[in-house]
């Protein structure tokens, strides 16, 4: 088996996002670290009445908690050959799965990242997802409305960032042009656009102060979420990790990298199943699931061991 582990971005947070890992013993240190960063137990926070799971700081931390807790389930299956790639904030979580930073450092950096993005982006901006139009047409529409292409998901699927009123009109125009889907996403910052250049620089400065760990020999191959290239030089990889905050990310290239690595099994860790859905189109023939699709952590381990 060659396993591709995909780490979710923001937008899919939900009250049951820790159902499989809440009582998984190996994930306990991840939840303990999260409590020190969040100030409350993430497992209780997501179920609290009226909890804002989509605030940028909280959302980014929760996505990293989900990824790192899920990774402890993958480790229990001891897969021999693994590639790991993260989508947006999932790109940061990937550095934890790949053994470059410990869980507490990843979660602390998630908070720093979100705070830098909030300071640079301000209020009244976000992201919209558009599917069913060629990316060139999406990019043209974005420019017409003062927005920017944020993510390349596939040849006919992308994410656009910009001011919220402009995104509303852009979605309307995209649907009129024949888009199968054009919706505002549950993300309150124009991630991966030039509007966040200051956040990229701030986060790059923060990353430069961190000490990288030497990954274990069995650590997975780490893929840059910016362009799908393998990360061999850690410091160069951290520069990309910072710059993806304000540059268009090429998720389609990340999925191509997983396919080229020979991935025949794919597991998405994190809230939702958007990446698993995209992987089914990009990696035909692979066995693909999201963690959210299982009923127990033990069931995930059994599935991986049987692959």
TrEMBL record:
<dbReference type="InterPro" id="IPR001227">
    <property type="entry name" value="Ac_transferase_dom_sf"/>
</dbReference>
<keyword id="KW-0808">Transferase</keyword>
<dbReference type="InterPro" id="IPR050858">
    <property type="entry name" value="Mal-CoA-ACP_Trans/PKS_FabD"/>
</dbReference>
<protein>
    <submittedName>
        <fullName>Acyltransferase domain-containing protein</fullName>
    </submittedName>
</protein>
<dbReference type="Pfam" id="PF00698">
    <property type="entry name" value="Acyl_transf_1"/>
</dbReference>
<dbReference type="InterPro" id="IPR016036">
    <property type="entry name" value="Malonyl_transacylase_ACP-bd"/>
</dbReference>
<dbReference type="InterPro" id="IPR014043">
    <property type="entry name" value="Acyl_transferase_dom"/>
</dbReference>
<feature type="domain" description="Malonyl-CoA:ACP transacylase (MAT)">
    <location>
        <begin position="6"/>
        <end position="303"/>
    </location>
</feature>
<dbReference type="InterPro" id="IPR016035">
    <property type="entry name" value="Acyl_Trfase/lysoPLipase"/>
</dbReference>
<keyword id="KW-0012">Acyltransferase</keyword>
<dbReference type="GO" id="GO:0016746">
    <property type="term" value="F:acyltransferase activity"/>
</dbReference>
